[in-house]
Give the backbone structure.
Amino acid sequence: MTHVVTESCIRCKYTDCVDVCPVDCFREGPNFLTIDPDECIDCAVCIPECPVSAIYAEEDLPKDQLHMTKLNADLAVLPGWKSITKRKEPLPDADDWKDRTGKLSELIR
Amino acid sequence: MDPQLAPAVMDTAAEHDGPIETDAVIVGAGPVGLFQVFELGLLEIKAHVIDALPYPGGQPVELYPDKPIYDIPAIPVCTGQELTDSLLKQIAPFGATFHLGQEVTTVAQQDDGRFFVATSKGTRFLTKTLFIAAGVGAFQPRLLKVDGLERFDGTQVFYRVKNPADFAGKNLVIVGGGDSAIDWALNFAAEGPNKAESVILIHRRDGFKAAPANVAKMRERCEQLEMQLIVGQITGHEEKDGRLSGVKVTGSDAVTRLVPLNVLLVFFGLSPKLGPIADWGLEIERKQLVVDTEKFSTSVPGIFAVGDINTYPGKKKLILCGFHECALAAFGAMPIIFPDKKVFLQYTTTSPKLHKVLGVESPVFD
């Protein structure tokens, strides 16, 4: 089991979650954060940090986000996706995108 | 440092010593495992404690030793290290035996009902009861994920330094940005019996988690050309005659450079893994062991699970809940360990028997 970042994070990347992760398991892409399932210890501390509630425990994922488990795992091992451990500014138009759904096509690998 | 004996010698020695026969084995030396020693101790059950880490304390010490904890009853604030130190003091009267730096690999029930327990270092036990207080699993080094590099694990790629002399005179590449990476880089770059031929430190960014004083010392050594720092990530490796000859390091300038080496030391910190617990035939739900809330017994009578590793309706992963679970699990183990003994609940304040167990004087009330 692991925790999973869902589509809500795409084009927002608020990064509040990374500060609290005790095992530094977040990886950063151009417009999305992912959780490395090999590192996540299911402590759940990141869930309430996310201002757009993008993070779920794997078995609590909404039905329309089940595909994100595999996507998180796949993205986590891409060479360009580096560990992120310190909070930084969200993407400039994050507030415009935070309430939108169906953002998967916006994801940049 | 571990004794430097050939594995065959260790195996033979282990064969000739029988397993340790005991009433209780605790897996995990985090706060809950330590308090399990206390609760068993009050019931006059002596315990052996096993942990994968070389020191007690578990998650609070490994993940956040200096961060404050505010929800331990009657302790308004303490750090993970302080909590561990207090618990060790509290359980001192019970003389538990610690087997650290080793992971439990095997748990198998014998015909007589006892459990055979073996560790990665070959320590073996025959125990009447087993208490799994393993939290989120055993802490193990995070691996450097580069295709094909794993073939050199233990010969040229190392995740820990057991014997520094093994690396003296070698061309070392050390990767990581925490205390271990910096400390070992300084150690091997310094004059002395373990001085390496050359030391190159690689870290993905030019900022370090390690103690600032040591980071400054490292930069000083680089300026004096006693070692070198490369900012970048290891993205590949080169081999020559079946040996690892170098690593490819991609810098922030997107240029990939080949760094030749004899030995690669990787210090990426530790990460917990559930490991073999999943194979012990216990009922598991969402990576946790299912227990009852009367005795905190797993699906196998005699094996108890306490703390973050267990799950039951309403489970909350809190240290204080783990402490409660320890008390009930200890009482739950009594019929297995001492089937003929009548068990009374006694208070440490008033029970002369408990005072004896604790090694304190019984107060005289006028």
The mean pLDDT of chain B is 93. Residues 7-139+272-358 of chain B form a domain with the FAD/NAD(P)-binding domain fold (CATH 3.50.50.60). Residues 26 and 302 of chain B are 12 Å apart (CA to CA).
